UniProtKB/TrEMBL annotation:
This is CysO-cysteine peptidase. It comes from Nocardia terrae. Pfam families: Prok-JAB. One of its GO terms (molecular function) is metalloexopeptidase activity. Its EC number is 3.13.1.6. Coiled coil: none annotated. It is an enzyme of class 3 (hydrolase). Gene3D superfamilies: Cytidine Deaminase, domain 2. The keyword Transmembrane does not apply. It comes from the Bacteria. It catalyses: [CysO sulfur-carrier protein]-Gly-NH-CH2-C(O)-S-L-Cys + H2O = [CysO sulfur-carrier protein]-C-terminal Gly-Gly + L-cysteine + H(+). Residues 2-125 form the MPN domain. InterPro entries: JAB_dom_prok (IPR028090), JAMM/MPN+_dom (IPR000555), MPN (IPR037518), VirAsm_ModProt (IPR051929).
């Protein structure tokens, strides 16, 4: 199960809407081994495509090094589908290379709403998982 703060969900959806009609993509990093998404990192879709996303290789290398130095890992890897349902494509499945990550897809095909779903993708096998959205932490807590 993916447990994620509401403000992080809102940030992913806003990024997906902002980049529409191209696919948006990014990462939410968290402490290594925690399975806790904390730091929202929108990325550039180097493909600039409505049907495909690709992290910019330089940006990805810098981010992975930054996460490594901070003892973080990519807890969530997200991207949007602009014209189809929030389900991984064959390409998405073939590029899924982080065994511990939650792969979140946001469908923006309906301008009035969105569909957000999360998957584990291991060795080409896609398993949908429940998503529990929890309140954002209060600043005073």
């Amino acid at each position: 199960m993916l447990v994620i703060r509401a403000d992080l969900v809102e940030a992913m959806v806003a990024h997906a809407r902002e980049d529409h009609p191209d696919e948006a993509c990014g990462v939410i990093a968290g402490p290594e081994g925690s399975d806790r998404p904390e730091r929202f990192i929108p990325m550039i879709n180097a493909a600039r495509s409505p049907t495909f996303y690709e992290f910019d290789s330089g940006e990805q290398l810098r981010l992975w090094r930054e996460m490594d130095a901070a003892d973080e890992e990519p807890v969530v890897i997200y991207h949007s589908h602009t014209a189809t349902e929030a389900y991984p494509s064959r390409t998405d499945i073939s590029f899924a290379s982080e065994p511990n990550a939650h792969y979140v897809l946001i469908s923006t095909r309906d301008p009035e709403t969105h569909d957000l779903r999360s998957y584990r993708i291991l060795e080409g096998v896609v398993t949908e998982e429940p998503v529990e959205i929890v309140p954002a932490y209060s600043q005073s807590a």
